[in-house]
Amino acid sequence: MSLCGREAYKAELTALADGDPRIICLEADLGGPSHPFAERHPGRFLNLGIAEAAAVDMAVGLASAGLRPFLSTFAAFGTWRAAESVKLGLGYQGAPVVLVCPYGGVSGGWFGPTHHSLEDLAVAQSLPGVRIAVPCGEEETRAVIRTAAADDRPCYVRLARNEPFDAPFPPAGRGEVGWVHGPAGPTCLVSVGEKPAALCAAATEQRPELSHAHLCWVDAESLATAAAELAGSARRIVVVEEHRAAGGVASTLALMLPRHEVLGVNAGPSWPSEGGGHDDVLAALGLTVAAVLDAASAHAPTVIGLAGPRAGRATPVSSKASPGALHPSTTT
Amino acid sequence: MNEFDLARERALRARGSVVDMAASPTGCHLGGSLSVLDILVAAHSVAQARPGVEVVLSKGHAAAGLYAVLHHMGVIEDDPAPLYGRAGAPYTGHPSPKVPGVRFPTGSLGHGLAYAAGWALSRRLLGEPGGAIAVVGDGELQEGLVWETLQIVQAKRIGGLTVVVDVNGGQNDGYVADISPLTDLPARLAAFGFEVFEADGHDIEKLCALLPPEDRPKAVLASTVKGKGVPATEGKTGSHYVKISPARARQWKAVLR
Fold first, then answer.
1. pLDDT of B101-134, one tens digit each?
2. Are B105 and A48 in contact (CB < 8 Å)?
């Protein structure tokens, strides 16, 4: 049994810190009472308590002194509660702080909308220079943490909750397209995150003529490289992501690929406030295999809009976007 | 002339530079720049004498005061006053790291204190000397981020941090006492584990003795006068943001104190 992303993060960072004395592990009361980093490196572990904005700012202070802080809290709090701190510290200052956030998307399930995070990528994506990763499974999560530790760049890493995910594909690095199925045919499904990868895998089982590409690093700088490869492989790109339409990967790709048909299968506009597990809430949002297949069909909806009447429905996020509307960032 | 006479002379010259910035096309946050000016001279004097001590002006709207002090203390070479607010120059209305001597951008209130706490913590983690002097406004204490940070400082026993409060009594829309009074501030800071001192915020010699970061966190409540040094503006909340003519600047500089 592989480790879930949260545990893979802890294990990998703990191991990396053996050889890198600059690494500091910060928690905001959501890392659990027993943390392997705290046990192995007690002098470099601090649970700062329930104070996310101050925690991000203090991490920026530590980074300014040459340390490499990794700070973890739930995605909703790391991006929105601490939004201004993230903007000023990771964005404006380009501080090499790594924000590692489980509970991405609706992995919080029955915890409800306060603990869901369908808008976090929009926050991170709006900040030039911030690297963004949405790894799938243990191996890719470990690879992301190693990359983040090796590079002096601000990073946002979105994880799910406690469910392990056995990824049937190797880790995708920065700028890389992880081909899960294909490339073949004019339509390519692009999955971002574990559940979307599973949905796309199920869709290609039913429709083998569809391609399936997996993306891990989804900031504009990394996507610019991936977009070029995707553009050469398909005419229709269907991005499946556990996120709102606004600020998601589909919207970014659509601006980069104005001559391609870029569709988004996403969380739609609703606030899922009923119980159930991760899969139940995804189904309530309409993020299903059927929605993916619908988008991939030759008769996808043509109504353009970010808040369609049915959650999960494919929305062409752009068909004639301005080529200059979004340039990949290459600065810190 | 001893070191404190020199510091006072620098402060007087810096006040003149702040008045010059008020006479720029943009004007500047004059009242708070003049109230905090002696604190900044003392803080930077302490930092220049001790390795690893970082001064963070958390009340970043007093940027004019900071630029003036850094110039007259030799950190900023060219006079920033003629460049204040100008296109192509780094002397924005709130300081950025593009300015020599500025490590963290401030102005969105509360963040500077947390950056300073992070810097102070870094000294402990790296085993290096130094600490941080965070200069905050009394109005700034209304920000929740300030109290989050103080909570962490106490909980994690972060030493090497001096928090200086520029108690000038004013904020953008009026008096702090009218808008959101700071009830029993010394006791509140003491409850967060700070050793609390009250001082005249214009007594540079006294401030130089109080400000050096030590093992235990310190808070210095520095009583100041908004608009200090320009008789026409002293104690007036209307001096918060001022734009004056060059002729008025000459008048004010002639009577600086």
1. 999 999 999 999 999 999 999 999 999 999 999 9
2. no
Among A53, A57, A84, whose Cβ lies nearest the Cβ of B118?
Answer: A57
Q: Is B234 on the interface with A (CB under 8 A)?
A: no
Q: How many residues does chain A have?
A: 332
Is there a contact between A93 and B116 if contact means CB atoms under 8 Å apart? Answer: no
> Does the beta-carbon distance from A65 to B119 stay under 8 Å?
yes
Q: Which tens digits make up the pLDDT trace of A35-63?
A: 999 999 999 999 999 999 999 999 999 99
Mean pLDDT on B143-162: 98
DSSP A102-147: -S-BTTTGGG-GGG-BSSHHHHHHTSTT-EEE---HHHHHHHHHHH
- Domain interval for residue B206: 3-254
Q: How many distinct structural domains can be found in chain B?
A: 1
Q: How far is B115 from chain A (nearest CA, A)?
A: 5
Residue A72: partners with Cβ closer than 8 Å, 6 or more residues away: A9, A25, A26, A27, A28, A30, A31, A78, A99, A100, A101, A102
CATH of the domain at B47: 3.40.50.970
The runs of H, that is alpha helices, within chain B are 3-22, 30-35, 37-49, 63-72, 111-126, 144-155, 176-179, 185-191, 204-210, 246-254
Asked if B117 reaches chain A (Cβ–Cβ under 8 Å), the answer is yes
Contact A57 B155 (CB under 8 A): no
- Complete domains list, chain A, with CATH: 5-158 (3.40.50.970), 178-318 (3.40.50.920)
Report if pTM > 0.80.
yes
Nearest to B111 among A62, A67, A85 (CB): A85
Q: Is the dihedral of CA B226, B232, B236, B240 positive or negative?
A: negative
Confirm if A312 and A287 have CB atoms less than 8 A apart.
yes
Mutate to test the interface with B, among A29, A46, A57, A67 (most CBs of B within 10 A): A57
Dihedral sign of CA atoms B194, B196, B199, B203 in order: negative
Q: What is the pLDDT of residues A122-137, one digit of tens each?
A: 999 999 999 999 999 9
Which of A59, A67, A92 lies nearest to residue B105, judging by beta carbons? A92
